[in-house]
Specification:
The structure is a homodimer.
Chain A: E1 2-7, E2 20-25, E3 35-43, H1 48-51, E4 69-79, E5 89-95, E6 99-102, E7 108-109, H2 126-138, E8 146-150, H3 155-166, E9 170-175, H4 178-186, E10 192-195, H5 202-209, E11 214-219, H6 223-231, E12 233-241, E13 255-257, H7 260-266, E14 269-272, H8 282-294, E15 302-306, H9 311-317, E16 326-330
Parallel strand pairs in A: 8-9, 8-11, 9-10, 11-12, 12-14, 15-16
Antiparallel strand pairs in A: 1-2, 3-4, 3-6, 3-16, 4-5, 5-7
Helix pairs in contact in A: 2-3, 2-8, 5-6
Chain lengths: 331, 331
């Protein structure tokens, strides 16, 4: 027996389980040169929401009645391809299927003994690389600066904050519960944290937590938290626009204060990116992250949801703040 | 007899003549090491509006009951400083006074025979340098790209468009009258122009004028024209935030559509700057601009208002679109 999870309809606002369909399918047979993969860990990420819209973007939208795809760790359970022995663990962008055949093209082999398999979906995968290239390539973060991070207890945010500390910065995080604020300080070494849900005046809260102003703001959320960061930005400040999760489920075009005068007056840069823009830096980034991990300078959280059928629920949970760190589904 | 123009009160909304006071003063006497300057040409620029506000910025606000200052071309009419002979023409950031004494520190000598004196306030001064460093240092403009410019018939905008053409780009300008649109095409060589005052749907107008999308947008105005540029921006697009004149006189905090999702989805950069951020590039920029000017690859417009007492009126005229090209007051 095999299963796939299809996009049944395009979400309006926050996705619901009715937007997905779990479908029983046949286990494929492999031909010469092919391998059979069994999914072990499936990554669910906020950016997938964007691909569920029927609009032009850096990557094609998901098709209705076709499987959603994301980063997956799988094991080779049968092989007619000499490059992939049976038992090998691989990592790739794959459709949400229990079992699937593959040519092997574009898959990376992963070493189970170097780090836990799920880490390749997080701190050693696109999550960690996103944090690293965002801070270094876009943010140009320098020792002694004040770094503000939103979504700070999430997978990317908690890595951003730790890299900020490794680089000798003052790091302030923003998250949505006192528990998350406590974790970012005790577990990830942030200097200060702000719970935006219990804060009436975000501008004042950021000002209070960043008395020297904000030099670099790593934005995962957009919206009013971005406004508060820009209200406190320093001259030559940089905003790394990594995500805007607070806006992704809006059905109307969101509005807010205009920031162009701030950009001009303070020579501020705002720059969006996706990790794929920096393919050429992946190897160096992974090497550096792996080294910090081995030296115990980096740690990570993950929220593991069990069961293939729960992938949609885990994905929806991202928008309800149900994850601490990387959200991963274990099959 | 001598005169100075003081900031009498901080403008609310659009500046009026009542915000300024023309005051008769004494002609100063010079001491050893000093020179006496007589103002010949005074530059009025939109950014001066910012310094009239009592708020922190890259440069101190103007003080009430003190002279406003801007770029001025003056002649040395008396000298007790061996570095400045009587008759020399100089350029510097100077207070609005008919005559003033000076130590000479920070003044640049200008050559009357290389270019008309007023050009040193425009195409060979901060105006031309702003266009050049904005496009090359922030915009990273490349041959074959589509360049959109607002305030396109203004001093900076018309230079931006011409540099775009020199660099082999498709150049589209936005301005506020059919006459200005005609001038940008016939005199400055823009490929297309949009009169935003007679256009109902700016998004559609930009789309129509830029069928391949916008690669680089040089923004002098902010507001809804910026929104239209971002609605048509290409992947890896760059927005050069040089000014936001449409917002400078607003008394309430302006609002508009949020752009962070566009920045993330299309890896777009928006970056504000002031020309002083690039001091080290001034010499190379002036040299390049001077060469293009001599080769007749660059031209410029100026609107010359006559009379010291008319400086405030000329400044206010900037916000009413009364200038074509650089606005200069001839004393």
């Amino acid at each position: 027996m095999n299963k796939a999870i299809l996009l049944k309809s395009r979400p309006e606002g926050t996705p619901t389980e009715s937007n997905f369909e779990i479908k029983e399918t046949k286990t494929p047979e492999i031909n010469d040169g092919e391998i059979l993969l069994e999914s072990l860990y499936v990554s669910v990420d906020p950016y997938l929401r964007g691909r569920m819209r029927d609009e032009k973007s850096y990557i094609e939208p998901f098709k209705i009645d076709h499987p959603v795809e994301s980063s997956i760790i799988a094991q080779v359970t049968d092989s007619k391809n000499k490059d992939f022995e049976k038992g090998t663990f691989v990592h790739g962008m794959l459709p949400w299927k229990l079992k699937q055949k593959h040519t092997g093209k574009g898959l990376q082999k992963v070493d189970k003994y170097r780090a836990p398999l799920s880490a390749y979906l997080g701190i050693l995968g696109l999550t960690g690389i996103t944090a690293y290239v965002g801070l270094t390539k876009i943010g140009d973060l320098k020792e002694g600066e004040t770094l503000l991070v939103s979504g700070a207890s999430g997978a990317v945010g908690s890595t951003v904050g730790q890299i900020g500390k490794i680089m000798g910065c003052k790091v302030v995080g923003i998250a949505g519960s006192d528990e998350k604020v406590e974790t970012m300080k005790s577990k990830f070494g942030f200097d200060k944290g702000i719970n935006y849900k219990t804060t009436d005046d975000m501008n004042a809260a950021v000002k209070n937590a960043c008395p020297d102003g904000v030099d670099v703001y790593f934005d995962n959320v957009g919206g009013e938290i971005l406004d508060a960061a820009l209200a406190n930005i320093n001259r030559y400040g940089r905003v790394i626009n990594c995500g805007a999760i607070s806006l992704y489920n809006k059905t109307e075009k969101p509005t807010g204060p205009r920031h162009e005068t701030t950009l001009v007056k303070k020579s501020v840069k705002m720059q969006g990116f996706i990790v794929r823009d920096f393919q050429e830096d992946f190897e160096a980034a992974t090497k550096q992250l792996g080294q910090w991990l081995q030296e115990d300078k980096l740690t990570y959280s993950e929220t593991i949801v069990e069961g293939f059928d729960n992938i949609p629920k885990a994905f929806i949970g991202l928008f309800e703040g149900k994850n601490e760190g990387k959200m991963v589904v274990k099959i």
